[in-house]
Amino acid sequence: MDSAVRTHGRAQSVAILPHMRPAPLTAVGRSVPRREGADKVTGRARYTDDVPAPGAWYGKTIRSTVPRGRIRSITLDPAFDWQRVVVVTADDIPGDNVVHLIRDDQPVLAPRGGEIRHKEEPIVLLAAADRSTLEEAASHVRIEYDGAEPVYELAQATEVFSTVAIVKGEVVEDVKDLKDVEVVERTFKVGLQEQLYIEPQGAIAFPEANGSIKIIGSLQCPYYVHRALKRALKLTDQQAVVIQAETGGGFGGKEEYPSIVAVHAALLARKAGRPVRLIYDRHEDLAATTKRHPGVIKHRTAVKKDGTLLSQDIEIVLDGGAYCTLTPVVLSRAAIHAAGAYSCPNVRIRARAVATNTPPNGAFRGFGAPQSLFAAELMVEHVAERLGISSVDLRRKWMLRLGDTTATGQVLTESVGSELVLDAALKAVGTVGRPDGRTVKRGRGLSLVFHGSGFTGSGEKKLQGTIAMEALADGTFRILTASTEIGQGTKTIFCQLAADALGVGMDKVVLAPQDTSLVPDSGPTVASRTAMIVGRLVQEAASEIKERLKRQKLPLRVAKSYMQPDSIHWDETTYRGDAYPVYAWACTIADVDVDMTTGEVRVTDLVTAVDCGKALHPVMAEGQIEGGSLQAVGWATIEEIKMKDGGYQNDRLATYLIPTALDAPRIRTILVENPYSRGPFGAKGIGELPMDGPAPAIIAAIHDATGVWLDEIPATPEKVLAACASR
Amino acid sequence: MRFTLNGQAVSFEGSGARRLLDVLREELGATGTKEGCGEGECGACSVLIDGEVVDSCLVAVGQVEGREVTTVEGLADGGRLTALQQAFIQHGAAQCGICTPGMLLAAHVLLQQAGRLTADDVREGLAGNLCRCTGYTKIIDAVLSCTK
Fold this sequence. Notes:
The complex is a heterodimer of chains A (727) and B (148).
Chain A lengths: L1 E6 L2 E6 L21 H6 L14 E7 L5 E8 L8 E4 L26 E2 L5 E7 L2 H8 L2 E7 L12 E9 L12 E10 L11 E6 L5 E5 L4 H12 L6 E5 L12 H16 L3 E4 L2 H7 L6 E10 L4 E13 L5 H10 L9 E10 L13 H19 L3 H8 L19 H11 L11 E14 L5 H5 L2 E6 L5 E4 L9 H13 L6 E3 L18 H19 L7 E6 L8 E2 L4 E2 L4 E14 L5 E11 L6 H20 L5 E2 L2 E2 L17 E7 L21 H13 L10 H9 L2
Parallel strand pairs in A: 3-14, 12-13, 16-17, 20-21, 26-29
Antiparallel strand pairs in A: 1-2, 3-7, 4-6, 4-8, 5-7, 9-17, 10-15, 11-12, 11-14, 15-16, 18-25, 19-20, 19-22, 23-24, 25-26, 27-28
Helix pairs in contact in A: 3-4, 6-7, 7-14, 11-12, 13-14
Chain B lengths: L1 E4 L2 E4 L8 H8 L18 E4 L2 E4 L12 E3 L12 H9 L8 H13 L6 H7 L11 H8 L4
Parallel strand pairs in B: 1-5
Antiparallel strand pairs in B: 1-2, 3-4, 3-5
Helix pairs in contact in B: 2-5
């Protein structure tokens, strides 16, 4: 049967699975008003620092000033009256001095005599009734160190956090004997990037009766914080309560770090016996919290003269910074996406993440994939150039299609949108316009990427995210999940999904607050999994309630946990199998102006066609894609972090620049609906995908404009001018 | 010290050197105004002083003595959203919402200006207000939809 694969405003006809024929929907697919929209436009929405906490003191973190060494002494200067403040050191931690995540390497507070592994490492916490007392106290804390030689260079790093090896077929090692084979080698570098949510990190801790601690904070993953609190403060499940306040952006930056902020606030509140607000200012947030992993990616690609792809040999090294955080999972996603959206019979991917004495890097939208896809996409360009053929034609020849096999041996059985998005994007652009200015050259570049939706490999199976739904006596339905609204629309789309699955109006559906004492653990709000994985559970719970209400009475409660479909197989030891349940696809076309006198790069137009399965809320889906695309434009062009002695030199918003409305191109989004049978109403996760495509498209556009290839981002004016000069 | 906040006379006793942002948030309960950077770069703390957009993190409260301050709480008229606020919801111009109060005030001033606004005018007018969620496209659409 033919069914509509809808692009925005135009329809294409392709075959899709018959059971995906959509039922009439009243909420899903409509751009209904955002649930908390009125609160957000009137100032009523309460973010962490807006939450009243009568009697609360202010908290502050004293951090290391050296990148590596040992703490020789911590001294409280007797010139200050320490009765006026609360002081917390590692000695005050009732549980384990560990930030609970993957590896127990990161202390909550570096102890006296303990090792310092990076600048800005937390050592002492202070709380006081007012800010001036707090600052005065801070200036009277003396910490002495025995310094050690720091490691900054990836080549010199000896500690390896994790490695990944993916092997498919046999890579072409020696080409001397092969006729008509070209081998193209190239090394790419990507830089650090700050998430730069506009609301800095923050939490308020409330000590409660019976030794409980309640946290209200800006966070993506309530249960990550819950586990960290339990571990460090030795609390039971019930004693640790974590509530998400309205959250002013996350982008991965509020996946790991809020555990540290919350545990710190909790330690202070516990000792002070009163609530403590620990709200970072922008400088502290930039200086101390996680960034996107920088890295070096080396490709060696063998092709026949006719463009037939023979083999890809890829080596990835990511800089994890000083502690493990989520680095092994980031590396895993980087490695799995490293071959790009292409079908190659012989692939070898060797990836490792190493430790340096810089602040830990961590989760950031795309989670390793933007780094490796940047290199993969530019390799297509370099191979095309070597062969003297169009890179678009080469992509058509190589692209993964239905039935093809990925680098991990996953056979793509449905919802493969590679060609759909390529065609849609190409159709949407006209000819390249004239450059804006006499010294300016204009060029165009294209990229084609895919992004696995949901956790990698067995992640979802291990996690078994759980949600609940209640049919209440008053005729309303309540959704209980720990999945957070961070701007992407969780609150709205969950209600849309439930309303249509129940066959009721959206006004009959409410969402329980993201409070660990009320809602089950539906998993972290990360990995492009919320709409697709958790949303599907919402849909299933609603369908079951609808069924059961035919014979059962109100009130009713249904819980749903993720069940891995039997058809998904993943072997973590060999990295073979179904790395992701499904992939979302995107083609991005960027036009840039390069000023040949200043080296300045300006993206003038950006078109992205995205195969999202089903746009549950078209305006929000576009919003995700546009915002993610601009974040990628920033990463590719102006967002540069300069290191000095293991710290970030430009750790203020005056010096770390992100795109403004003036810098931003008009971003045009084309939503291609190519349903996925196990997604809610066909939807796939797209939160991270828009971070992948723009950077390589922009670098290709710079080449189109100037004739020079940059191998490193961001494409700052200095790099562009240097590349043009050395030509 | 006295000034007008969203049409109401308010008074504040304390140091005139305190940041207007802190006085609004901590003394007057107007937490709609947000702090994003504390150094006048992000515009999240934008308020109107006598109708001009100002970063309230850079203004000492003493400077607004006798003047009129408008925050996001003062936009809606008795609970009825303005056309601009409605447009922000309809166009998806507010995602995480943290830049929204400042963005709304900057856009509100733009819309007061005479003459027809172009997309470039809006970009120029909102260049002091950073948004990390939307890529600005939907914000610009929302503002332009109010120019008719």
